[in-house]
Amino acid sequence: MTNIVLFGPPGAGKGTQAERLRDSFKLNHISTGDLFRNNIKDQTELGNKAKAFIDKGELVPDEVTIGMLKAAVKEDRYGNGFIFDGFPRTEAQAEALDKFLFELQTEVHGMISLDVNDGVLVQRLLERGKTSGRADDANEDIIRNRVAVYYKETSILKDYYQAKDKFYSVDGVGSIDQIADRLAEIVKKL
Ligand code: AMP
Predict the structure, then answer these.
(1) How many distinct structural domains can be found in the chain?
(2) Long-range CB contacts for residues 158-163, cutoff 8 Å, separation at least 24
């Protein structure tokens, strides 16, 4: 089993690359952002709780997010492993993931970061907002808040995985194929 955390700021291309890895390595792709959006669409209780945070570009509280993630893993646990896309985003989430995977007799094998500079990110997200229908992609202030939240709350997770010797990074600028190749080289060795 191979479990990968795909890491990087909003707009780095995690979703696109997670789908490529899912297909190449037959992994289950779990995106907490997608799970939240599906819950909002279906107007579930969880979706209603999450919506106000997401619309502002803030993080959804840990207990809500962690519970949702665990349920998704339990539903899907019979593949070659998981690609976690957009999770963990806080140290409490990273610790909860370690504990939970340990209970399932597995672990995070590597975190791979997609490195993209901020100017490129905002442009990519504004462009995506024209077609994604996502409220949090449509407004430049919310996009900037999401990037700021990433640097304030999430980017420290690099140290968390580096301390465990599980941190890798690739250049996230280039064609989708080029970036997919860079990621595949790392995943093959995990
Ligand atoms: P994403 O699709 O990964 O960009 O996520 C969209 C939004 O969902 C984020 O801006 C957060 O509001 C929320 N979200 C997704 N994943 C998490 C997480 N792991 N922790 C807290 N909030 C999250």
Answers:
(1) 1
(2) 158/7, 158/111, 158/113, 160/91, 160/94, 161/5, 161/94, 161/108, 161/110, 161/111
Give the type of residue at 54: I
For residues 125 and 137, the answer to whether their CB atoms sit within 8 Å is: yes
37 lines ligand 1 (CB under 6 A): no
pLDDT (tens digit per residue) in 9-56: 999 999 999 999 999 999 999 999 999 999 999 999 999 999 999 999
Torsion sign (Cα): 31, 100, 168, 163:
positive
From the CB of 112, is ligand 1 less than 6 Å away?
no
126 alpha carbon, distance to own chain's centre: 19
- Reading the block at residue 4, the tokens are 């990968």
List Cβ neighbours of 185 (8 Å cut-off, separation of 6 or more).
none
pLDDT at 72: 96
State the CATH number of the domain containing residue 74: 3.40.50.300
Distance (Å, whole) CA 83 – CA 33: 13
Out of 32, 40, 62, 97, mutate this one to test ligand 1's pocket (max ligand atoms within 8 Å of CB): namely 32
Domain range spanning residue 137?
A: 2-189
CA nearest ligand 1 atom 15, residue = 33
Cα 42 to ligand 1 centre (Å): 17
